[in-house]
């Protein structure tokens, strides 16, 4: 009722929210072009005196940006690919296959969503340390560092997502069983039914899940910091930027840190712009808010 009588109020609220969201990113971008004597000084200047790209060159050199990018890209790709594959397969099994204990398994998956991920970081780390025949360990997992010195350690705790299983399962329930039965009558196996019928129909939801997983994995900090303490060579971009900010004079390196943050945000922004249409459709179809 209020929206119909005062339509301008909706536009005002949306516009205010958009401004509050964009301003911090714009300030980060402008700060990345400022000189060392401009950042953090009063009176505050939003625009730099001169747009200089030296901060980006310094960020690439001081942060060893190519290595950090490589680690982040590899770990994020492993996590995103695994989550999409396992969520789609598990969601199909829980939605369309009948087997004893199916509802119990689904409730068990839902129950794991109540626990925060960092609650299991220490057990995960100990498992990776004692991984057999890896990192100098013997068959009993003793004598070395296990998988903690491998880039695989960055992805191991996040390869399966209970939220992803729940999301894909809820969407796949709406697929008519008659379509799947017709494919089975024609001789299609379960894998063929899943790949040729179910996956194409769930593409918007899978794109949404993939984008959400990509953002979470790209910005993961606590687990990446824990793993990088065992092997600095697997340090990711968020850890490297925070390391620079904590160990160097912030008044001099703030523009460099902002330049690193801009570079770290670019992959997520580009991916979202490329998949925006599928993402919005997936949100609408899956009922996400």
UniProtKB/TrEMBL annotation:
<keyword id="KW-0812">Transmembrane</keyword>
<feature type="domain" description="ABC transmembrane type-1">
    <location>
        <begin position="69"/>
        <end position="275"/>
    </location>
</feature>
<feature type="transmembrane region" description="Helical">
    <location>
        <begin position="7"/>
        <end position="26"/>
    </location>
</feature>
<dbReference type="InterPro" id="IPR000515">
    <property type="entry name" value="MetI-like"/>
</dbReference>
<keyword id="KW-1003">Cell membrane</keyword>
<protein>
    <submittedName>
        <fullName>Bicyclomycin resistance protein</fullName>
    </submittedName>
</protein>
<comment type="similarity">
    <text>Belongs to the binding-protein-dependent transport system permease family.</text>
</comment>
<dbReference type="InterPro" id="IPR035906">
    <property type="entry name" value="MetI-like_sf"/>
</dbReference>
<dbReference type="GO" id="GO:0055085">
    <property type="term" value="P:transmembrane transport"/>
</dbReference>
<dbReference type="Pfam" id="PF00528">
    <property type="entry name" value="BPD_transp_1"/>
</dbReference>
<keyword id="KW-1133">Transmembrane helix</keyword>
<feature type="transmembrane region" description="Helical">
    <location>
        <begin position="73"/>
        <end position="95"/>
    </location>
</feature>
<feature type="transmembrane region" description="Helical">
    <location>
        <begin position="254"/>
        <end position="275"/>
    </location>
</feature>
<keyword id="KW-0472">Membrane</keyword>
<feature type="transmembrane region" description="Helical">
    <location>
        <begin position="104"/>
        <end position="127"/>
    </location>
</feature>
<feature type="transmembrane region" description="Helical">
    <location>
        <begin position="147"/>
        <end position="167"/>
    </location>
</feature>
<dbReference type="GO" id="GO:0005886">
    <property type="term" value="C:plasma membrane"/>
</dbReference>
<feature type="transmembrane region" description="Helical">
    <location>
        <begin position="205"/>
        <end position="226"/>
    </location>
</feature>
<keyword id="KW-0813">Transport</keyword>
């Amino acid at each position: 009722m209020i929206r119909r009588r005062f339509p301008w109020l909706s536009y005002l609220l949306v516009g205010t929210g958009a401004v509050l969201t964009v301003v911090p990113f714009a300030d980060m971008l402008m700060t990345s072009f400022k000189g060392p004597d401009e950042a953090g000084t009063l009176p505050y200047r939003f625009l730099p005196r001169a747009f200089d790209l030296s901060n980006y060159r310094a960020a690439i050199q001081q942060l060893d940006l190519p290595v950090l990018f490589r680690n982040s890209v590899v770990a994020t790709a492993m996590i995103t690919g695994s989550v999409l594959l396992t969520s789609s397969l598990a969601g199909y099994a829980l939605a369309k296959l009948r087997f004893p204990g199916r509802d119990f398994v689904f409730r068990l998956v839902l129950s794991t969503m109540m626990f925060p991920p960092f609650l299991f970081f220490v057990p995960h780390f100990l498992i990776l340390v004692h991984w057999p025949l890896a990192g100098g360990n013997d068959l009993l997992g003793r004598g070395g560092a296990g998988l903690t010195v491998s880039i695989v350690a960055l992805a191991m705790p996040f390869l399966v997502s209970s939220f992803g299983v729940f999301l894909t399962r809820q969407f796949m329930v709406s697929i008519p069983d008659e379509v799947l039965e017709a494919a089975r009558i024609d001789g299609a196996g379960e894998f063929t039914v899943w790949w040729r019928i179910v996956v194409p129909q769930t593409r918007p939801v899978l794109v949404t899940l993939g984008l959400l997983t990509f953002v979470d994995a790209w910005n993961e900090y606590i687990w990446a910091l824990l793993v990088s303490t065992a092997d600095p060579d697997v340090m990711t971009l968020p850890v490297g930027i925070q390391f620079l900010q904590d160990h160097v004079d912030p008044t001099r390196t703030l523009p460099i840190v902002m330049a690193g943050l801009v570079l770290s945000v670019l992959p997520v922004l580009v991916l979202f712009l490329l998949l925006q249409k599928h993402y919005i459709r997936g949100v609408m179809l899956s009922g996400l808010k």
